[in-house]
Design goal:
Largest sheet: 4 strands, mixed
Distance between the termini: 109 Å
Structural class: alpha+beta
Radius of gyration: 27 Å
Length: 440
């Protein structure tokens, strides 16, 4: 009987070990060793043809699905890799040891995934790939793949920043000094949350919620504070950050000030402040929910393509000073508009085809930056010939003139979009210039 029990124990241990090893198959690190194989050969020669050959045969062709995915998501080209390798030799050597000990984190990462499963039992499987890129992301996702840019995620205070361009050095140093490698598990769980979420929608509010939820859920799963400086700063400066976001969240193409940036482009000097916005909403929702597990499920499964669901969620968090509709109305009331066209009245049906210029008049001065035009609803065949070199603002920036070539008896459309801005970057209300020319 003792022998039988001993045998059963041995079998259970073997099975347990096999299960544990199998679970680590969801954490793939081979791209790192392949990178250093290629790196050593690339740095051994100045022959650019050989360098590209080594990169291709020793790294890119041997790449995992994760490497292929991160190259796709961040548009990494062979030229990006060769340039990065040749430009920053001291940096690469300073992070080599960190990257080569990545397998030591497998157990912690697996524990983190299991902690995530405890608060979200519906967890779907995903794979974590540690790759090496060319400085465009420390972590991102594609479908059910977590993609870690190890050249950023595994840095620490010993990582060298002095080789980077002067305008980047301060941001790099600040980032390295934050010891990202110490928060590696939290980063991975944050990205793992993204693999469970529904597709993001690319407006600033939805992106803030998408990122903030991932940060909040990862923090709840791991039971540790957020490592993102934006969260700490936002909580200490809640009113002024919220007020600024309320003013700017409807601005088109304004993500660079709030997301995935060094922080140098906003007045706060802190990167990724939209993370705080979404994080605080998620925290407000969670704290006021009676069923915490259901609250986590709701946060993760928000449907960003369902506007009414997102608006209802935002309203339930009581984060903003007023409703989204009221905030949008305030924004829209401040927008400049087109008040007229100098040469003819808009929607005219008998405009002279001999007109050589169209001058648009604005309700207030814009920022004087020449910008592009869009086609109207009828398409490019209704856009007049416009000289690209003769688009000028008046001295007071209240009018904008373009040179055109018109034909008789034609229907024309020119769309002015919100890429026209004031000095405060408030966008123009879209305006369609539409007219028909006469016989002469």
């Amino acid at each position: 009987m003792k022998k039988l029990l001993g045998l059963l124990t041995t079998v259970m241990i073997i099975v347990s070990c096999k299960t544990e090893n199998k679970s680590y198959k969801n954490i793939v690190t081979t791209d790192i060793t392949h990178f250093w194989d290629a790196y050593d050969k690339i740095t051994s020669t100045q022959d650019s043809v050989l360098q590209y050959k080594y990169l291709d045969t020793l790294y890119l062709q041997r790449g995992t699905a994760g490497l292929n995915a991160i190259r796709q998501v961040r548009n990494y080209t062979p030229e990006d890799y060769i340039r990065a390798i040749n430009s920053y030799p001291k940096f690469w050597e300073s992070i080599r040891e960190n990257t080569l000990k990545i397998d030591q984190f497998s157990s912690e990462l697996q524990d983190g995934i299991e902690k995530f499963r405890e608060i979200y039992p519906e967890l779907k499987p995903a794979k974590i790939y540690f790759t090496i890129g060319a400085f465009r992301t420390g972590g991102t996702t594609l479908d059910n793949l977590v993609l870690i840019g190890s050249e950023l995620a595994l840095t620490d205070k010993s990582s060298i920043s002095t080789e980077f361009p002067e305008e980047e050095q301060e941001d790099r140093r600040t980032f390295f000094d934050s010891n990202p490698i110490e928060n590696l598990v939290l980063l991975n769980i944050h990205e793992y949350v993204h693999t469970q979420q529904k597709p993001m929608v690319h407006n600033l509010l939805s992106l803030a919620i998408y990122e903030g939820v991932a940060e909040f859920v990862s923090v709840k799963a791991m039971g540790v504070p957020s490592a993102a400086p934006a969260i700490e700063y936002g909580k200490k400066n809640a009113d002024k950050v919220r007020e600024k976001f309320e003013k700017e969240m409807f601005y088109p193409n304004n993500r660079f000030k709030w997301l995935w940036d060094s922080g140098s482009s906003n007045e706060f000097g802190v990167r990724d402040l939209a993370y705080y916005i979404g994080y605080q909403m998620a925290e407000n929702y969670y704290e006021t929910s009676e069923n915490k597990k259901e609250a986590i499920k709701k946060l993760i499964e928000l449907d960003f393509e369902n506007e009414s669901e997102i608006e209802e969620f935002v309203q339930s968090t009581r984060f903003f000073s007023s409703s989204i509709e009221e905030l949008y109305q305030k924004f829209d009331n401040k927008r400049p508009s087109v008040i007229g066209i100098k040469q003819f009245k808009n929607n005219s049906n008998n405009v002279s085809p001999r007109i050589k210029q169209i001058t648009v008049e604005f309700s207030e001065p814009l920022n004087g930056i020449n910008t592009g035009l869009d086609t109207g609803p009828l398409g490019k065949n209704y856009l007049p010939k416009i000289s690209p070199n003769n688009r000028v603002f008046s001295e007071d920036n209240k009018t904008w003139t373009i040179n055109v070539e018109l034909e008789p008896n034609k229907h024309y459309q020119i769309q002015l979009e919100n890429n026209f801005r004031t000095n405060d970057w408030i966008p123009l209300k879209p305006f369609l210039i539409e007219f028909k020319t006469g016989n002469k």
